[in-house]
Amino acid sequence: MLTRLHSRKDLEALRKELMKRRQPDKPRITICGGTGCHAYGCVKVTDAFKNEVAKQGMEDKVDIKATGCHGFCEKGPIVVIQPGDIFYQRVRPEDVLEILGETIAKNSIVERLLYIDAVTGKKVRHQNEVPFYQKQERIIFGSNGEIDPTSIEDYIAIGGYAALAKAIFEMAPEQIIEEVKHSGLRGRGGGGFPTGGKWESCRHAPGDIKYVIVNADEGDPGAYANRSLLEGNPHSVLEGLIIGAYAIGCREGYVYVRHEYPLAVENSRLALDQAQQLGLLGENILGSGFNFNVRINRGGGAFVCGESTALMASLEGKVGEPRAKYVHTVEKGLWNRPSDLNNVETWANVPLIINKGADWYRTLGTEHSKGTKIFSLVGKINNTGLVEVPMGITLREIIYDIGGGIRGGKKFKAVQTGGPSGGCLPESLLDLPVDFDELSKAGSMMGSGGMIVMDETTCMVDIAKYFLTFLEEESCGKCLPCREGIKRMRQVFDEITEGRGSEKDIEFLEQLSATLVDSSLCGLGQTAPNPVLTTIRYFRDEYEAHIKEKRCPAGVCKALIHYYIIEDKCPGCGLCVKECPQEAITFMGKKKPVVLDESKCIKCGVCGDVCKMDAVGKR
Amino acid sequence: MNEKVTAIVNKYNGDRGQLVSILQDIQTEYYYLPEEALIQVSESMAIPASQVYNVATFFRAFSLEPRGKHLINVCLGTACHVRGAVRVLEKVERSLAIKRGATTKERKFTLETVNCMGACALGPVVKIDGEYFGQMSTDKVDNLLNQFE
Fold first, then answer.
1. Full-prediction pTM beyond 0.90?
2. Across the interface, do B118 and A74 touch by the CB < 8 Å criterion?
């Protein structure tokens, strides 16, 4: 049970006490507990460490800590040993004995667990030397790897809730708002609306009861930064929220989390409970007289609920349909009262701005986009994971220096940002500085931070169709342009990808896109054409190949491709014969190439997946 | 009156704003939303049945049909899509002889898709009963399904 803190002095005393208890020289083994590492079995690794330490009676020699996400998901489970910053990757339970025996007991390195730099071929010992981390600026995400997300004491020990105390005891609400405005912080959920301005409008809106809301309904496919932040450092988000509530004048707040993120829900709940017990949340926070309560709501799996008015409808127990915003939600939002909604990452920026000051914050980023942004760097990239970079870094630096380039030596084709509302940018724009305005100018957008890299085997027409299919399913159906328009566009893509496209289709798609942009009710419909428009703008040749030549250059659109056996490469092993669900491939004897009967082929691609000799071709 | 449903409604003090959470808890209990439970929610919380039905059918998370013993979720997020998620889905469909959204005859598996489960680094991802299986490919599907009794 935690003891309630009654004043700022109590908080600082607790922090001192926690610091004193910490032994900086005692070895600490931190194991990444992010979702990626979970899937790779990090829980077993943590358990193995704990069991072995107990068995050998090493408790006084080493601490074991399961932390939040370290970001380098590609190489999970990740283990970092402090002090010394020793970085081990792909650690298995079998490695535990050796790590304890060598690194902890003898201070020597287990060479085979080190990361190998793909460019130099050299082994890297320390986390800060791994190229993946070198160009990053991990001001928000960095502490994830140091703290146990289920322990408020860990967060307090690294300076947590100091910003809250400063805000409540040293600053007037208007001053906090001024500071956030001056910092240049813009909404990290996608739109990039200035956060301080939003807070100010909400504070000035008439009404006694107002709400603050955390939007953790991260629906953009390919983005999972909010998830990792809420799972790995929930208190940073909560602290930002409490500061915002104080500045705006709210007594109630909500955290709206996707139900697909069970660990984020669990860790947020725990964080709320602990903050409540310590008196950092609830009645009379730190003895200041300020009251603020927070509730967690789970989403129901609807993309449109990322839209503020739809999210608020869902919080009221209704279906998540948006409404027209003649009246802004900062004036009439949840239950028709002034409501301020910000994204998880936006909230997590707030304590930093209060602690270090807006002037410091402004030194990061570009003229109109300050600070850092967390991206989920995924798709056909070597180093998949979560990266936090200063605004203004180029796409090329992210993809090649941090991401390590394209998988399997393939050629880069496009990078998709902004989810279904964003666009696909080609190689010629790789030197584009990444910020809100530059991405918008290029026809894409920042979005909530998905960055999906595509190579020569990705068909851009298929990608546009993929997003339309996604949006068709997710359109709430309230307004006609979105409901019918997206469907009609998807039908045109069916025609194009199935070889029935006509030359007028591109023009028609552009016209319909303009209609959707102009007349849809909410952001979902207004931005739905972006993937279509950017792919037409940058990859028109691929559309023309589909329409005029009835050909899919990337070899993706089923109706336009044919599978064949590359006879020179086929050793006649028969693996594909066994796996083909259609019995379309015939075994011709050992060392003789197999024969594919195209009339039976359903183009499922299984033969190519099982072939170890790359002997299955597509044309 | 079903006591489990009553207990769930009471846990949220019958707060109408918590309807989505209440339905989620009911679904966790029964793996789907039984008709009687929806009617009970409507009556005990004084929300029109049409509105409860509206919410239950709007959100993808809810199912009005009984589901199988094991719930398979194939992720169709962008990162998974570019790494071949559709081929994986089609392979699962062929192996189980059902289409997405359906349950096998003996109610062993229900096959659903999700538009991103936030495990993008592992794509293509398949989740079965809450456990993630990353870097899936068509040739791994049958072995994976065979692990489930």
1. yes
2. no
